[in-house]
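Researcher: Quick test of sequence recovery. Tokens follow.
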């Protein structure tokens, strides 16, 4: 248990930013919008959360600012793609490039700063229970929020009228519009939610995972989050399992390096991304499952009839 508990805690920490950003992207894609700018939104959320926390001394304000920053960038994406009818793929890629450059520019003045990570929950006696205590009752607020949002998203999509409307918009925007639903408005809200979740994921990286700012600190996690949505076939339950699986792979490659396994470090570092490619190939081989679960109108522009 001397190494199992720390390993599990590290896996949870590595999985949380993936789970936050992938949950937001899942809701966005369920509405029929494909936003490839997750990486850029995470970076902007990371630098915003860190900069505001350093400036104000309050991590709570930093987390809120990160979510707002993610929503602001998502709003730009929504305006370009939903109002001006720009190509969603090209706009998402441009958003990622913008996020990389903008976060590096703003973050240049915060390199070298270090802060205390978010405090973990501690319940007297319960958190001190061997093994179970630190794993279940010793996490920070954002870990519990990530799990809650997955459960809430699954409930929202399957048990609420608003969730069914969201799925209807993603599956057939023409039909949804014909019966009176505001397709553009619904997609705006879904895109803003995805931006807020990506901003929170970025804040987790800079405030908890590595409580400091480093340029391009997401290191491709936004792209893994996008792959997770496909891996989960747009189902929140599978998304939770997939996020922790990828988090486990990320941590295991670090532990393998520290254990002195005679494998090139470059190969170990690419394991999470290699796993992403392998999983996508396997999932893509079952086209029937993808067609049954993927939103039929994903990535397609919609122009309301005049």
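Model:
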């Amino acid at each position: 248990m001397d190494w199992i508990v720390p390993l599990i805690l590290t896996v949870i920490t590595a999985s949380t930013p993936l789970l936050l950003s992938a949950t937001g992207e899942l809701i966005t894609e369920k509405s029929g919008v494909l936003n490839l700018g997750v990486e850029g939104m995470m970076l902007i959320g990371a630098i915003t959360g860190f900069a505001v926390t350093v400036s104000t001394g309050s991590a709570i304000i930093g987390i809120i600012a990160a979510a707002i920053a993610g929503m602001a960038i998502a709003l730009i994406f929504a305006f370009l793609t939903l109002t001006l009818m720009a190509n969603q793929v090209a706009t998402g890629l441009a958003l990622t490039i913008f996020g990389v450059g903008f976060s590096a520019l703003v973050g240049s003045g915060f390199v070298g700063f270090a802060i205390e990570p978010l405090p973990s929950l501690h319940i007297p006696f319960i958190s001190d229970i061997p093994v179970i205590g630190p794993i279940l009752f010793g996490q920070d607020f954002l870990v519990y929020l990530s799990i809650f949002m997955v459960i809430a998203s699954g409930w929202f999509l399957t048990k609420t009228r608003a969730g069914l409307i969201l799925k209807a918009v993603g599956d057939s925007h023409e039909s949804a519009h014909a019966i009176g639903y505001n397709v553009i408005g619904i997609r705006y809200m879904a895109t803003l939610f995805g931006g807020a979740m990506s901003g929170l994921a970025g804040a987790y990286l800079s405030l908890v995972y590595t409580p400091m700012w480093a340029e391009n600190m997401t290191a491709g996690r936004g792209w893994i989050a996008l792959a997770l949505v496909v891996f989960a076939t747009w189902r929140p339950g599978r998304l939770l399992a997939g996020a922790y699986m990828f988090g486990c792979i990320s941590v295991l490659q670090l532990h393998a390096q520290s254990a002195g396994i005679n494998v090139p470090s470059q190969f170990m570092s690419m394991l999470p991304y290699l796993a992403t490619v392998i999983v996508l190939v396997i999932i893509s081989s079952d086209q029937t499952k993808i067609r049954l679960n993927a939103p039929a109108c994903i990535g397609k522009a919609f122009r309301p009839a005049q």
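The two ends are 66 Å apart (CA to CA).
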